[in-house]
Write a structure and sequence with these properties.
The chain is an alpha/beta fold and about 300 residues long. The protein is built from ten helices and eight strands. An eight-stranded mixed sheet has the order 3-2-1-4-5-6-7-8, with helices on both faces. Helix 4 packs parallel to helix 5, helix 4 packs across helix 10 and helix 5 crosses helix 10. The longest helix is centred in the middle third of the chain and has 25 residues. It is globular and about 50 Å long.
Length: about 300
């Protein structure tokens, strides 16, 4: 993996990818570079105006890019179901579960779930389950890549209080949702292996990359001074969105990616070329991952169908 860059991405001609949260940040870069290598990319975006602007910019940066915008709000299970139902492709080679929110003040979704847990985990859990038959149909080379964070070390999922109803702390809630991403990947990998599937489930994290993710919560609360401070920190300390997208692109395209791999920046979970990353021990706990899976099926109403069942 030493020095792996976008120039090392294998050709993607003939492959079909869905990237959630593709209108900005590492999601935009991930979608753009997949399209640059010949993939047909569906841009799953919540905001149609921002999505259209991203689609136009992508076509300018990659002439001839085969990209298409589709509305997808991970915080609304009806939107997730509609997106999956309206996706015309019968086969799907790659699903990048990238969209996310960070450290928001306590909010509820239209379905009544805590916003960070719902957007970062439940929406992607439902989307993956709805699209898994199309990933299976693509055969060898199909992958599910879920974007977690080095901040998953802030806390594991508490099965007694999945949505932090009793004492909400925004950063702990974010860390738990990112642990949920890794527990989901762990359990999905285990189940895919058990059924002998060719689909590979892996996870990635961008390190500290300068995107609008860090300032969204501050903007919601109109904390202008704190927002400017974070923007300054992004400019001086963080790596670029282009570099932050490398782990996702590696997990999505590089040969040799294995079930349940966790790919991140080489240097201190922060920056550098992609490599297999350290992760909290609790994200490899079979009992915890199975428990979260069962709860996620119950909350979303999406039950995965397994070959042989």
């Amino acid at each position: 993996m030493n020095g792996w860059t976008v120039s090392d991405i294998p050709g993607q001609s003939g492959r079909i990818a869905v990237v959630t949260g593709a209108n900005s940040g590492i999601g935009y870069v991930t979608a753009r570079e997949l399209a640059r290598q010949g993939a047909r990319v569906v841009l799953g975006c919540r905001d149609i105006t921002r999505g259209k602007a991203a689609e136009e910019l992508m076509r300018e940066q990659v002439p001839g890019a085969d990209v298409r915008l589709a509305v997808l709000d991970l915080a609304d299970l009806a939107s997730v179901r509609a997106f999956a139902a309206e996706l015309p492709e019968e086969q799907l080679d790659l699903l990048v579960n990238n969209a996310g929110v960070m450290a928001l003040p306590q909010r509820r979704t239209v379905d009544g779930f805590e916003m960070q847990f719902a957007t970062n985990h439940l929406g992607h859990f439902a989307l993956t389950g709805l699209l898994l038959p199309r990933l299976r149909a693509a055969g060898p080379g199909a992958r599910v890549v879920t974007v977690s964070s080095g901040l998953h070390f802030l806390g594991t999922v508490d099965p007694r209080d999945l949505q932090m109803d009793h004492r909400y702390r925004r950063w702990i809630a974010y860390g738990r949702s990112k642990s949920a991403n890794l527990l989901f990947t762990h359990e999905l990998s285990r189940r895919l292996t058990a059924e002998g599937s060719a689909v590979v489930a892996a996870a990635a994290h961008p390190g500290y990359a300068a995107t609008n993710l860090q300032t969204a919560g501050l903007r919601m609360e109109e904390r202008a001074v704190a927002e400017r401070a974070v923007e300054l920190l992004n400019r001086t300390v963080a790596q670029s969105a282009e570099d932050g997208a490398l782990p996702s692109l590696y997990a999505a395209t590089a040969p040799g990616v294995r079930q349940d791999d966790f790919i991140g920046p080489r240097v201190l979970l922060w920056r550098g070329s992609p490599t297999r990353s350290v992760r909290a021990r609790w994200t490899l706990d079979d009992r915890a991952s199975a428990g979260l899976w069962a709860a996620s099926e119950r909350l979303t109403g999406v039950t995965y169908a397994w070959n042989g069942d």
